[in-house]
Automatic annotation (TrEMBL), chain A:
Keyword Zinc-finger attached: no
PANTHER family listed in its UniProt record: CONSERVED COMPONENT OF ABC TRANSPORTER FOR NATURAL AMINO ACIDS-RELATED (PTHR45772), HIGH-AFFINITY BRANCHED-CHAIN AMINO ACID TRANSPORT ATP-BINDING PROTEIN (PTHR45772:SF8)
Gene Ontology terms: cellular component: plasma membrane
Keyword Glycosyltransferase among record annotations: no
SUPFAM superfamilies with a match to the protein in the record: P-loop containing nucleoside triphosphate hydrolases
UniProt protein name: Urea transport system ATP-binding protein
Lineage, highest ranks first: Bacteria, Pseudomonadati, Pseudomonadota, Alphaproteobacteria, Hyphomicrobiales
InterPro entries in the record: AAA+_ATPase, ABC_AA/LPS_Transport, ABC_transporter-like_ATP-bd, ABC_transptr_urea_ATP-bd_UrtD, BCA_ABC_TP_C, P-loop_NTPase
GO molecular function (one): ATP binding
Residue span, ABC transporter domain: 13-253
Keywords for this protein: ATP-binding, Nucleotide-binding, Transport
From TrEMBL, chain B:
Record family assignment: Belongs to the binding-protein-dependent transport system permease family. LivHM subfamily.
Keyword Hydrolase belongs to the record: no
GO BP term, pick one: amino acid transport
Organism of origin: Cohaesibacter marisflavi
Compartment list: Cell membrane
Protein's UniProt name: Urea transport system permease protein
From TrEMBL, chain C:
Record's protein name: Urea transport system ATP-binding protein
Keywords: Amino-acid transport, ATP-binding, Nucleotide-binding, Transport
Lineage of source species: Bacteria, Pseudomonadati, Pseudomonadota, Alphaproteobacteria, Hyphomicrobiales
GO BP of this protein: L-amino acid transport
Pfam families: ABC_tran
Tree of life domain: Bacteria
Gene3D superfamilies: P-loop containing nucleotide triphosphate hydrolases (3.40.50.300)
MF annotations from Gene Ontology: ATP binding; ATP hydrolysis activity; branched-chain amino acid transmembrane transporter activity
From TrEMBL, chain E:
CDD domains reported for this sequence: TM_PBP1_LivM_like (cd06581)
Transmembrane segments: 12-34, 54-73, 80-98, 130-153, 160-178, 208-229, 259-284, 296-320, 332-349
Subcellular location: Cell membrane
Keyword Transmembrane helix: yes
Listed Basic and acidic residues bias regions: 378-387
One Pfam assignment: BPD_transp_2
GO terms for MF: branched-chain amino acid transmembrane transporter activity
Protein name: Amino acid/amide ABC transporter membrane protein 2, HAAT family (TC 3.A.1.4.-)
Annotated InterPro entries: ABC_transp_permease, ABC_transptr_urea_perm_UrtC, LivM-like
Region (Disordered): 362-387
Signal peptide residue numbers: none
GO cellular component: plasma membrane
């Protein structure tokens, strides 16, 4: 294998000609994409373009039929399972908020908090002050301090979204995959979230999927437009929004 | 059976009224018949032989009654009669004169004892009588018996009959019977060689054993020919054996299918871990029993069709109980599927004990109707009627259910309700009604399965317990929520079981099937017909 | 359609009115004394931050959660205690938050579940629905659970329309939907209101969408309605304050 | 008023309820009759019924409860071997008395237990002799449920048949799991085995629930008693009640009692039974007779000892002789087994058996089989001074075969 | 570290229950052996062995709760681990009989002599030593659970599929142990034990000792289990139960988590079985019957799933009821027991314990006592919710 010190490329995540089909329907079709370390990338595209499926592939949930997915230039993600990929430093927020419903908000964050995931380590884990402080900080960020000790199942839809974002923060991964973070948030919150993500992207790589153009504008990063499983256009938001195909199939008139 | 006996009695009466038997002979016969009343079972064999040797048709009813255990003698004078039970008393028919004496109490008469040896002797002996019957079906049966008996003393009768027989089938049987006898006699070589040929074409185990004996005892050409014929027959037998095994497997599979098909609804579709499923099957079986009793008293003539009444009755009984169960208990448990296990387990205990209290703890008798008894011989196969019916019945039930679930609005609503009760309700589906109907349907179907299963097994309070584990196995193995899976799963497990059984034995075979299920689930963690994709998460 | 309620100021009959309802989750109170009226051929919009009780109110209206106090009148009938299917029978259709499609049913079957209360003659999917969401037509035999998030949302709306409602209750219908279709949905809602005279109750976070469509807006905060008025009110500072963090 | 309590330890629920419930009823009837006769030692008898629910450890618990808590003087109960094995230590520890009414595999003799059912030599061997001599059987299928009783019986029979000159290839042994319900393959194997030209018979030690499907399959595949007779050791009137016997006429069973036995004692017993159960159709069977004998023996022994003290009664029992239902007397022997006639019956279409053979005299039950090498040298005699259940006649020591 | 870990298990009411059980383990035997039989506090022999049995059942139910209540693995085969532990102990007890068996063979158990075995099979070696048997009591169920779980969890078999293959496992073992050829005594199993560690089993004192052992084992297992579910690992367990794949995306090795509790739970079940056998005096394949395993699930459900203490209460209540009903209403007890199960499900959705605590919560909330702090409220709610 390749020595871990020698990086093949500097690219953090590299999808190369990836395809996947479900019962003959090509959901991802020869998709190639490269994310640099410290980069934040926005991905937009019509419903069913394959954005979520792409995340499924990166996180090991779906195996592509063809193509490679390289992480940090050397780890072939298609050969690893979800756990290994998560441990390698890829975190994800799901489109439909998924949290541990029978545990409290704080416990959800505690579970997500980075650290040794082994059986023995978690058996003998004692919460350090740093960890407690970190959780407190995240609670603050996602504005759930008031509800820290309530069961996650009692949260409203939007609050669950926030909790999931919080968990992602707690996990502190190298690469964050964020699927529709502002769905169900008020405009004001959307602005906040954009700020938050920009802050995070200073130290992390981020891929954001959204349909909210205002939000994408606020992010102010390179945008990739997916359609029918492959890249339709790439560039600044203004650039892609002017693209006739993008207007036709996505933005509408 | 009863028809036959009525005929026999007529025959006796006819014979008596237009009797052409000389008086002296009649007396001899009378003595010979009355002699049956005395002596041990062993002595009786000689007496039966003597009767058979008379060649007189009068002995036919006597011996038939004897074989069936209906020949009695009067205690007072040791006179032998044909006895027919009429209610609590007997009516006696004099075998010679045909006079009928009604209303005789059991106390005054005693049965002429009979055992298997005598029965066999009578059957073989009477077959020679039947060989001259006018009914070709009877001749055919007789010829078959003669072939099986392989009794050298029958040879003259066979020859005699062959000389005048017209029916091709009967001729074939008789020739085969003769061939067997020729082979073991000291007939010339050509005769033996042609006999071997006949037997080889006949095939079957008995031919094989005759040929085996011939191959051992003879030499030269006959031995060679016999050995070759043996190889040929054995090859055929092996092939038929394989086919037979597949059939056994399918038939076992159809039983599994029947047992699990109701569960495929209550558990597969509704998600209720229904431990009382077996008891629904049991209720169906008991309904069959009750219907049979009712028909027996109300319309004995229809007894052969009581199963047809039992099917709707079982559906209604089990369905009604399922309905009550759903309305009374299960409906409080939606969203807590695991708890249904506890409640239905409790229900199953209650139902078992209820049936035990009402019907008693012992097995109840459910008899096979005529059209479900016996077997058909098809080339090298022997297919029993009850299994054939059950097989097609199971398929028919499956088909109906499949159509109901997939092709009707009700089926759609059933599936929608179990996937998202609240949302279905908000779309206007009357969820309580659909829930109750679905559970009642699953229970009713289980009840119908009980009708069929009562034909092959016990009808006891424990009946349900013996099917419940297999049912869950089948449904899960096939893939929960997939009817096709249940079908294919049941048949696969049936066939697998039957292929393992011959060389592993029944016990080890069953263990291997279980191990196979465990390993298979590793390969397909969601069953044979797994639902794939995002939809399952 | 029965319309026995008195007409309102705007002249349209009231299709739905809720009167002083409270709603509890266990011991926690989610709604406090909410009253609201939804008029025929009007779009009533409800806004509010996360967790203020918008969804809870809708669940109370469609009958998925019992109220602890107050009354719900639907087309002149008191349905406070009625089960959801009975309310659906009175012409209310619900597009829930989180889509709630039937994952194992195909798209076609998902739509057909909506036939439950329709007379036999009306049991077909109107072409308009496919015009609005062409993707549904392409995917009729795909399982609902396999659809993408946005496709599921479209299916949920389509399914509600199949029932031919006279009151349509939508909980954040634009969530996860691509911009072009959001525009289409907006147009469709206007069409339903204007051409079919359907009463529409819309919960939204997407302010622009709301402002464009709504006739009336209500703003909720902490389980209460804190402001009601015409859509133009949304431009007022103090109203917007309820929506910021 | 002081009573003498009698424990009834039979499963009333679970798999064994099918067989054991009847025995509970029979015991209640016997006790009631005894009370009508004035009770015992001037006291009334009081039955204490418990339900061990076909659960073997529960048998032990219930036995302890009967003896320890309810203070019963004797217990009548158990059906399966394992239930008996489960309660044995309890009876030994608490020194009480158990009457065990079912035919079993033998190889046991315990001071506190009285075996009123048949030992293998009182059932299996005479049955095989009958088939060999009367029906000229030369080929044998030994079919059984896979547990100790069939295994032992078949072991004994195999040794016995081989000693009689039957070749190994003429013996087919087949075991099936408990409650086996699909008999297609096995019945067709039997059929094939029987078509090889020699007269064939099936010796069935198939147990319990599995019998009904077995016989139904036999009937449907057309196996007639005239061709291949099946002789069973666990099928009695009770089991036949669940079957349509029309196609099964002529198949056999070996027991020590049949309901069709022609004796006054039997007629009386049957009448009493019908009156007690208020059901004309209830049948009687062999284990019921065993309880009948055992109960009367116990009554006599208590009267003889003048007390219900277990030690006294245990010592009084051997030698006691009471009428059995087939017109003779059965005696309790020092090895705690009893003497019985052996009857062979053919199934009739009315669900009864027609007795076709009866041993000339009474057969004493043999605790240790003569056909098993390690048991042949053991005898049992609980009388003083021997007082031993496994006395080795070679070493003249109590305690089995001892170290070799 | 270990002691700190165990200490955590002693929090809250668990500490009281564990202490109570341990105390019973001391007091009951003392009362049985020291007090005269007419003393008001005397515990009769019969009760000692009966409750000893219940305690082993309670341990089994609690072990099941650890995997079912906390990790969502509905094992319908836990009876198998119990029985295997029982067989390991049974084999030891069998070897202890020595030449006191009916045939007097010093090596071979009776049933082997009986079926003409000439030699002790290899897998019986070592069982004449208590330490070896004791290791096997843990090792055999543990190993089976480990191997079984290794494959099943790695293949991501979950839900009913897992339940059914555990059932298939115990069913297959049932059939296998029924076979006389297996060398475990077939249907009759292992019986006729004489003594354990030199103490005769027919002596009440020995049984009192066994009672104490069962009580201590249960109490210790309770503390260990409680420590586990209160650790962060316990939260991972719940996470696995509620959203297995989400836990994976957080980087948890879900299959290891499951494997660990499954194996641990199987070992506890094995210990329960090992204590059970000398108390009841027999082990036979019936213990492998699928219905037995289902019953264990029922005990846990009756008492309250996901509470550790609930299953203990459930196991004891149901079995006490069973013992009592079978003697009081031998003909109707199934109605009563069945009715009880139905009633518990319908009227006590959280099991007996859950209902008890929510009732006591209500009582508490009536009092104007100071409100419990946020954390405690959350804690309690969580426990209730988990069932
Ligand atoms: N298991 C599956 N079986 C069949 N089709 C599938 C499956 N999974 C995804 N698809 C299809 O693949 C396409 C891509 O879906 P995906 O969820 O990736 O879209 P998306 O870009 O995330 O859309 P949205 O913006 O609506 O979330 C969709 O058309 C969807 O219906
Ligand atoms: N099932 C539940 N159990 C307990 N509390 C709940 C439940 N559902 C919602 N809540 C609480 O009730 C309050 C109102 O929730 P609701 O879902 O109505 O909010 P919402 O206004 O729809 O928010 P969002 O914009 O996030 O969807 C919230 O504080 C939430 O935490
Ligand atoms: Mg998506
Ligand atoms: Mg909401």
């Amino acid at each position: 294998m390749i020595d871990s010190n020698t990086q093949v490329t500097s690219t953090l995540l590299y999808l190369d000609d990836v395809s996947v089909s479900f019962d003959g329907f090509k959901a991802i079709n020869g998709l190639s994409l490269a994310i640099e370390p410290g980069e934040m990338r926005a991905i937009i595209g019509p419903n069913g373009a394959g954005k979520t499926t792409m995340m499924d592939i990166i996180t090991g949930k779906t195996r592509p039929d063809t193509g490679d997915v390289l992480f940090e230039g050397q780890m072939d993600l298609t050969q690893h399972d979800e756990t290994e990929i998560a441990q390698a430093g890829i975190g994800r927020k799901f489109q439909k908020p998924t949290v541990f419903e029978s545990q409290t908000v704080r416990e959800n964050l505690e579970l997500a908090l980075s650290g040794n995931r082994g059986v023995w380590a978690s058996l003998f884990y004692r919460e350090s002050e740093a960890d407690a402080a970190r959780i407190e900080e995240i609670l603050q960020t996602v504005r759930l301090q008031q509800r820290a000790n309530e069961l996650a199942s009692d949260l409203s839809h939007g609050q669950k979204q926030w909790l999931e974002i919080g968990m992602l923060l707690a996990q502190d991964p190298k690469l964050l995959l964020v699927d529709e973070p502002v769905a169900g948030m008020t405009d004001a919150e959307t602005v906040e979230t954009a700020k938050l993500l920009r802050e995070i992207s200073k130290t992390h790589s981020v891929i954001v999927v959204e349909h909210d153009m205002g939000f994408i504008r606020d992010l102010d990063v390179k945008v990739t437009v997916l359609a029918e499983g492959s890249v339709l256009a790439e560039g600044s938001l203004d650039h892609v929004s002017a693209h006739p195909d993008v207007i036709e199939s996505y933005l509408g008139r | 059976m009863t028809v036959l006996r009525a005929l026999l009695v007529c025959l006796v009466t006819l014979l008596a009224s237009y009797s052409t038997i000389p008086a002296a002979m009649a007396d001899d016969l009378k003595d010979a018949i009355n002699a049956l009343a005395e002596g041990s079972l062993k002595d009786r064999e000689a007496k039966v032989d003597a009767l058979l040797e008379t060649g007189d048709d009068t002995v036919v009813p006597v011996l038939t009654y004897l074989a069936e255990g209906d020949l009695y003698f009067r205690k007072s004078d040791k006179q032998v009669f044909l006895a027919d039970k009429t209610g609590r008393t007997f009516s006696l028919t004099d075998p010679i004169s045909g006079d009928v004496i009604p209303d005789i109490s059991k106390r005054d008469i005693k049965k002429v004892r009979v055992n298997n040896n005598l029965r066999r002797q009578i059957r073989d002996g009477l077959s020679l009588f039947a060989l001259n019957s006018r009914d070709s079906a009877k001749r055919l049966a007789a010829a078959e018996t003669i072939y099986k008996a392989q009794d050298a003393s029958a040879l003259p009768a066979i020859e005699a009959r062959l000389a005048k027989e017209q029916d091709a089938q009967v001729i074939a049987f008789l020739q085969e019977a003769r061939a067997g006898l020729t082979l073991t006699s000291d007939a010339p070589e050509e005769a033996k060689l042609s006999a071997i040929e006949i037997l080889r074409d006949k095939g079957g185990r008995q031919a094989l054993s005759i040929l085996n004996e011939a191959a051992e005892t003879s030499e030269g050409a006959v031995k060679d020919a016999a050995s070759r014929a043996i190889v040929a027959i054995e090859r055929m037998l092996a092939i038929w054996n394989g086919v037979q095994n597949i059939w056994y497997g399918l038939s076992l599979g159809s039983v599994l299918l029947l047992a699990s098909i109701g569960l495929a609804i209550t558990f597969g579709v509704m998600g209720v871990i229904n431990m009382a499923h077996g008891e629904m099957v049991m209720l169906g079986a008991y309904t069959t029993f009750a219907v049979q009793q009712a028909v027996q008293t109300a319309a004995p003539g229809l007894i052969d069709y009581s199963l047809l009444f039992a099917i709707p009755a079982a559906f209604l009984v089990a369905g009604a109980i399922g309905f009550v169960l759903e309305r009374g208990i299960i409906r409080f448990l939606y969203g807590r599927p695991l708890e249904t296990l506890l409640a239905t387990w409790g229900v199953s205990l209650i139902l078992q004990q209820a049936v035990r209290t009402i019907f008693g703890p012992t097995n109840q008798e459910v008899s096979n109707p005529g059209w479900m008894s016996g077997a058909v011989e098809l080339a090298g196969l022997s297919l029993t009627w009850n299994r054939i019916w059950i097989f097609f019945f199971a398929l028919a039930m499956f088909g109906l259910l499949f159509a109901l679930l997939k092709r009707t609005p009700m089926g759609l609503q059933m599936r929608a309700v179990t996937q998202n009760r609240n949302m279905a309700s908000s779309l206007g589906v009357k969820t309580p009604w659909v829930d109750a109907f679905t559970f009642a349907l699953g229970s009713g179907i289980a009840g119908i399965a009980g009708v069929a299963l009562s034909q092959i097994g016990n009808v006891s309070p424990n009946l349900g317990q013996s099917y419940i584990i297999d049912s869950f196995m089948v449904v899960v193995f096939g893939g929960v929520g997939n009817l096709w899976g249940t079908l294919i799963g049941a048949l696969t497990l049936g066939v697998a079981n039957k292929f393992l059984e011959p060389f592993a034995g029944a016990v080890l075979g069953k263990i291997l099937v279980l191990v196979f299920i465990i390993l298979f689930i590793q390969k397909r963690p969601r069953g044979l017909f797994a639902l794939k994709g995002r939809a399952v998460e | 359609m029965e319309q026995t309620s008195p007409d309102t100021a705007t002249g349209n009959p009231v299709a739905l009115s809720i009167d002083g309802i409270d709603l509890h989750y266990g011991a926690a109170q989610a709604l406090r004394n909410i009253s609201l009226e939804v008029e025929t051929a009007r779009i009533t919009c409800v806004l509010g931050r996360n967790g203020v009780g918008k969804t809870s109110m809708l669940r109370a209206i469609v009958g998925q959660h019992p109220v602890s106090k107050g009354k719900i009148i639907l087309g002149g009938h008191d349905v406070t205690k009625a089960p959801p299917y009975a309310r659906a029978g009175r012409g209310i259709a619900y597009v829930p938050q989180g889509r709630e499609i039937f994952p194992q049913l195909t798209v076609r079957e998902n739509l057909e579940v909506g036939y439950a209360r329709l007379p036999r003659k009306q049991r077909f999917v109107e072409e308009e629905i496919f015009d609005l969401f062409p993707i549904l037509k392409d995917m009729l035999s795909r399982r609902g659970g396999d659809l993408s998030g946005g496709q599921q949302q479209q299916l949920a709306i389509g399914r509600a329309l199949v029932t031919r409602p006279n009151i349509l209750v939508l909980d954040e219908p634009t969530e996860g939907i691509q911009p072009s279709i959001i525009k289409d949905i907006g147009r469709a809602i206007t069409y339903l209101k204007e051409e079919k005279g359907i009463a529409i109750l819309l919960v939204e976070q997407y302010l622009d969408f709301c402002r464009e469509l709504a006739d009336v807006v209500h703003i909720m905060d902490r389980g209460e309605i804190v402001h009601s008025g015409p859509a133009e009110d949304l431009d007022k500072e103090h109203v917007r304050n309820h929506l910021t963090v | 008023e002081e009573t003498i309590k009698v424990g009834v330890l039979h499963s009333l629920s679970g798999t064994m309820a099918i067989s054991e419930t009847t025995l509970k009823d029979a015991m209640l009837m016997l006790i009631e009759e005894q009370n009508e006769k004035g009770g015992l030692l001037g006291k009334k008898l009081e039955p204490v019924v418990v339900d061990p629910a076909s659960d073997w450890p529960l048998f032990a618990e219930k036995a302890r409860e009967l003896i320890d808590v309810n203070d019963v003087s004797a217990v009548f109960g158990c059906w399966t071997s394992v239930s008996r094995k489960s309660v044995l230590p309890v009876f030994e520890e608490l020194n009480s008395i158990l009457f065990y009414p079912v035919q079993y595999e033998g190889e046991e003799s315990q001071r506190n237990v009285f075996y009123t059912g048949a030992a293998p030599n009182q059932q299996a061997i005479p049955a095989v002799d009958y088939l060999m001599e009367q029906e000229g059987v030369e080929r044998w299928v030994l079919a059984g449920t896979d547990y100790v009783y069939p295994r032992t019986t078949n072991k004994i029979l195999e040794a016995y048949l081989k000693a009689k000159g039957v070749a190994a290839e003429d013996i087919m042994i087949n075991y099936t799991p408990f409650g086996h319900s699909d008999w297609q393959t096995i019945v067709s194997d039997i059929k094939a085995f029987g078509e090889a030209g020699k007269k064939t018979a099936v010796v069935s030690t198939v147990n319990g629930d599995a019998n009904v499907p077995f016989y139904k399959e036999l009937a449907n595949q057309g196996i007639k008693a005239e061709d291949i007779p099946v002789v069973a050791f666990s099928v009695g009137e009770e089991e036949l009640a669940g079957l349509d016997t029309e196609p099964l006429v002529g198949h056999l069973a070996a027991w020590n009692y049949f309901q069709s036995v022609d004796s006054d004692a039997n007629y009386e017993f049957i009448d009493a039974w019908h009156a007690f159960t208020k059901d004309e159709n209830r049948v009687t069977n062999d284990p019921m007779e065993a309880h009948y004998i055992g109960f009367n023996m116990w009554v006599k022994a208590v009267e003889k000892a003048g007390s219900t003290d277990p030690d006294a009664v245990i010592d009084a029992l051997p030698g006691i002789s009471v009428p059995n239902l087939s017109g003779g007397y059965s005696a309790m022997m020092p090895n705690h087994h009893i003497t019985k006639p052996v009857l062979i019956g053919e199934i009739q279409d009315d669900g009864q058996f027609d007795i076709v053979y009866e041993t000339p005299g009474l057969v004493p039950g043999d605790a240790w089989s003569d056909y098993l090498p390690d048991s042949a040298k053991l005898i049992s005699d609980w009388r003083a001074p021997l007082s031993c259940g496994n006395f080795n006649t070679e070493t003249n020591e109590c305690g089995g075969k001892g170290a070799e | 570290m270990i002691s700190a870990f165990l200490f955590r298990g002693l929090a809250g009411r668990i500490a009281w229950v564990a202490a109570f059980i341990a105390l019973l383990g001391i007091l009951v035997p003392l009362s049985n052996l020291m007090l005269p039989s007419d003393h008001a506090l005397y515990v009769p022999d019969y009760i000692v062995s009966l409750f000893g049995k219940y305690l082993t059942y309670a341990l089994l139910a609690m072990a099941l709760d650890l995997v079912w209540g906390y990790c969502g693995i509905l094992s319908l085969g836990h009876g198998a681990f119990f029985a295997l532990g029982g067989y390991a102990m049974g084999m030891y007890l069998m070897r202890q009989i020595g030449s006191r068996g009916v045939y007097g063979d010093p090596i071979l158990p009776d049933f082997m002599v009986f079926l003409n075995w000439k030699e002790l099979p290899w897998y019986w070696y070592g069982f004449d030593q208590f330490w070896f048997a004791a290791i096997m009591v843990l090792a055999i169920p543990g190993l089976l659970a480990f191997v079984f779980g290794w494959f099943a969890f790695r293949s991501r078999v979950t839900g009913v599929y897992l339940s059914i293959i555990t059932q298939a496992m115990t069913y297959a073992l049932l059939l296998a142990f029924f076979r006389n050829d297996m060398g475990f005594g077939g249907n009759n199993g292992l019986t006729d034990f004489k003594d354990i560690l030199g103490y005769t089993l027919q002596n009440p004192a020995t049984r009192a000792g066994l009672f104490a052992a069962a009580a201590f084992a249960l109490s210790l297992a309770l503390v260990i289990s409680s420590a586990i579910v209160r650790s962060k690992f316990g939260k991972v367990l719940l996470a696995t139960r509620d959203a297995e794949s989400r836990a994976r995306f957080l980087g948890y090795r879900v299959e290891h988590v499951k494997l660990f509790v499954f194996t641990l739970s199987a070992m506890m079940a094995g210990i329960a079985g090992a204590l059970y056998v000398p108390l009841v005096g027999i082990i036979n394949p019936g213990e492998f019957a699928p219905a037995n395993s289902i019953e264990v699930v029922i005990w846990a459900a009756v008492g309250g799933r996901g509470t550790l203490i609930g299953p203990i209460i459930g196991a004891i209540t149901v079995n006490l009821g069973k013992s009592w009903f079978t003697a009081q209403f031998p003909e109707y007890w199934l109605f009563v027991l069945g009715g009880l199960f139905v009633a518990v499900t319908v009227f006590m959705p959280k099991g007996m314990l859950g209902t008890l605590s929510s009732f006591s919560d209500k009582v508490k909330s009536l009092k104007p006592a100071p409100k419990p702090s946020q954390t405690e409220a959350g804690e309690m709610r969580k426990e209730g919710e988990a069932s």
